[in-house]
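Late entry, flavin-adenine dinucleotide complex.
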Amino acid sequence: MEQRIIDSIEKIVGKEGYSTKQADLYTYGFDASIFHYTPDIVIQPRTTEQVSEIMKIANREKIPVVARGAGTGLCGSAVPIKGGIVMAMQRMNKVKEVSVADLWVDVEPGINYNDLNEVLAKHGFFFPPAPGSAEACQIGGMVALNASGMRAVKYGATRDYVLGLTFVKADGEIVRAGTRTVKDSSGYQLARLMCGSEGTLGIITEVTLKLTTKPKKSAYCLCAFNNVHDAGTCIAALIAKPMIPASCELMDSISIRAVNKARGNPLPDCEALCIFEADGETDEIVARDLKILEEVAREAGAISVTSSYDPKQIDAWTDARKSILAALSALMPGFVSVSLADDMGVPISKVPEAVKRFQEIAEKYDVTIATYGHAGDGNLHTKMLVQPENADMWERGAKATDEIFDVCIDLGGTVTGEHGVGIAKAPKYMRERESELSSIIAIKKAMDPNNILNPGKLEQWEGSILTNLRYPCEEYM
Ligand SMILES: Cc1cc2nc3c(=O)[nH]c(=O)nc-3n(C[C@H](O)[C@H](O)[C@H](O)COP(=O)(O)OP(=O)(O)OC[C@H]3O[C@@H](n4cnc5c(N)ncnc54)[C@H](O)[C@@H]3O)c2cc1C
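Prediction complete; structure with ligand written out below:
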């Protein structure tokens, strides 16, 4: 990057507000996906006005800008594949105001999910989605991906809590979108459009989230099955009952084995597991829901059903579930767990069929695929175990990914329930959203005519999903 541009950036954010050191640039070229690309500069703004001034420079000079939260995204959304500026939001991390009477909280985008919930808990409220990355991820990243997590089945995704937000457009204009009212039917919902926009339409600098009360009681129920199909059937039967659990997690045998090996057997040794959560205002409500959960699980063929109110036991189960991603990388020596087809959504009743089809695809391409996820809302994750330097294995993995996405689209689902499109899902996103594509392209052109905001992602993706691999595989680095 030219020194005169760096000098102008320094005038805006000061010496401590940016870096061009190679080590920083390299580090900010990753997220938690399989991709990497080194940017030219990392900027850490402190205010909306600073973001606006930087965008004016970037737009004038036609420099790509990629907003970055904690970099925990799993499909390359925050990887700066065209170089340029990484706008890292971690210094904008304050809770600006909590208005309990009006049911909202105003935050800066760099605040961490758990930190926000600590503040909200003091007022008796919470922001429920509960992503597996809760300890690290930021609210700006959650909004930009419409992230969710374990409690989305009952409480919804991030988008359902965004009342309004402030964002900076590509040309530096500061826009306040939405309201601070719980209800709003005032025309186009620009704030909603920003949810899931993955940094391609603007840089979010403030978010107004709706508050909701935290239930006082909860308990968990762990159900073991002889096969993953029965576990999927149990989930569909439960929802149809109707009974919406507070969370509903599915794990297949590979995920269970990986976690038991890595963490000293916190889970029963079985072919499939469902971990349910029941919550409510009183013990009676929770006990009633647990009873329904247990009955449905037994009817669906569960071989063991164990309920618990004990926080230690519950932590052991939920920590085990959250550790799948890391545990899978320790399952087979020489193999790493990677996010290729990592986050599909299917209609809930189709979960059993989807899981069966994933297994068939794994056999067809001779790859190891673990399936787990927030299956209560039809959100299924798969992780592939790959030898990083083995090009043939990556290629088989890419073909399997392609077919898994097709299965989900054909079942009436989506290639991403919560992790976003980024790079990994871009080709199939274009198939899934075919009928919306010309409108999507028109919106992007109108809001970012010079195409500087996270260019080359989503509908702009070209090439193979193995381009820019961060692993030591010569063919695709
Ligand atoms: C172990 C693990 C478990 C996970 N579990 C879940 C889960 O249960 N549910 C789930 O939804 N996800 C999960 N994820 C994925 C990821 O953590 C979340 O989607 C999270 O919301 C990403 O937040 P982030 O701050 O890390 O965003 P980043 O990865 O930094 O960025 C994600 C996208 O948001 C954009 N962005 C970030 N900040 C802004 C901003 N201020 N303005 C505009 N655009 C912005 C970036 O450009 C990028 O496109 C998991 C990841 C890991 C590693």
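The chain has 16 helices and 19 strands. Will revisit in the morning.
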